[in-house]
Amino acid sequence: MPASKTSLLWRCPKCDLPLIPEGRSLVCENGHNYDLAKEGYVNLMPTGKKLASTVGDSAAMLVARREFFESGFYEPLRQKLVELVIKDSPRVVGDIGCGEGYYIGGIAAALPGARCFGTDIAKDGIKMAAKRYPRASFAVADTYGQLPLAEHQADVLINVFAPRNAREFNRVLDPSGKLIVVIPAPEHLAELRERNGLLGLQPDKLQAVVASLGGEFKLGDVISLTYVLDLAAAAVGNLIGMTPNARFQDDDEPVFEAITTVAAFDILSFDRLS
Ligand SMILES: C[S@@+](CC[C@H](N)C(=O)[O-])C[C@H]1O[C@@H](n2cnc3c(N)ncnc32)[C@H](O)[C@@H]1O
Ligand SMILES: [Zn+2]
């Protein structure tokens, strides 16, 4: 990845000044220095911040997630997101809580002229994303902190099954910018959840998300995307392994059974309120 692309994008987490490339580092005018990893990503977590070990997805969850995606099960969702994002020809698109980069990677491939970026608190995910999707820029950053980005920098932000920060999304988006949030619909993986005793979904998730963004964003279109998933045992293992359920599995080698279930997503488009 050309370093100049990163330098135009990221802001110093300590003093908010633009980060400029200098060798294999990004440096602000105050001399704060951030190394570019060999995969091209940069860690922009404020130094000294201690995180609980359960914050962000673990390496094992991210590997399961990538294997699941590689089987194409969530390709219809990626296609729908690409379609929604590219229709306004945005110049700058970000994925906040991008994990291993599947969605922003697909958008970057479909929008070669745009600057695409992803942030996530899981360094292992950002590393996988940067390696696989060199057209996009990636940084380790905490969605609940100040994002390492300038005011009004992005034309579109996407947020898929990941934490949100309404105030920061509003700050980073262009005044005419769009926020696209994907959440599970109530019937998402219902059969799988029931058979495997998985964690339930938050009741009234859609209303809760709209309320949490309400002061900063106005809800526009809601698209429901539902389709059948025929999952072999290995895919069931990956799907369970990529979710927080993985943390509650006490069996060392759990046995999974093939199942037919439903993928059901609500895709919410929000306009920024100023
Ligand atoms: C369910 S995963 C979704 C990842 C990706 N959007 C996808 O759909 O493949 C949730 C993601 O949120 C990230 N995450 C959790 N807490 C976060 C935080 N405070 N700041 C940034 N990312 C966070 C996790 O590391 C994980 O990658
Ligand atoms: Zn600085």
Question: Would you kindly provide a brief summary of this structure?
Answer:
30% of the residues lie in helices and 27% in strands.
Mean pLDDT: 92
Q: What is the annotated CATH architecture?
A: 3-Layer(aba) Sandwich
Distinct ligand kinds: S-adenosylmethionine, zinc ion
- What top-tier CATH class fits best? Alpha Beta
Number of domains as seen in the coordinates: 1
Secondary-structure-based class equals alpha/beta
The CATH superfamily bears the name Vaccinia Virus protein VP39
What is the rounded Rg?
19 Å
Write down how many β-strands occur, each being a DSSP E stretch of 2 or more residues: 11
Are there runs of 5+ residues with pLDDT below 50, and where? 1-7
**What is the overall number of helices?**
9
Give me the strand/helix succession. HEEEEHHEHEHEEHEHHEHE
What does this 3D model show about the protein?
This protein has one domain (3-46, 56-272): 3-Layer(aba) Sandwich (Rossmann fold). It is built from 9 helices and 11 strands. The chain has helices at residues 3-9, 59-70, 75-86, 102-110, 123-132, 166-172, 190-196, 205-213, 233-241, and strands at 20-22, 25-27, 33-35, 42-43, 92-96, 115-120, 137-140, 154-160, 173-184, 217-231, 259-272. It has an 8-stranded mixed sheet with strand order 4-7-6-5-8-9-11-10, sandwiched between helices. Strands 1-2-3 form a 3-stranded antiparallel sheet. Helix 3 (75-86) packs across helix 4 (102-110). The protein is globular, with a radius of gyration of 19 Å. 41% of the residues are buried. The protein binds S-adenosylmethionine and zinc ion (ZN). S-adenosylmethionine binds next to loops. The site of zinc ion (ZN) has 7 residues, from loops.
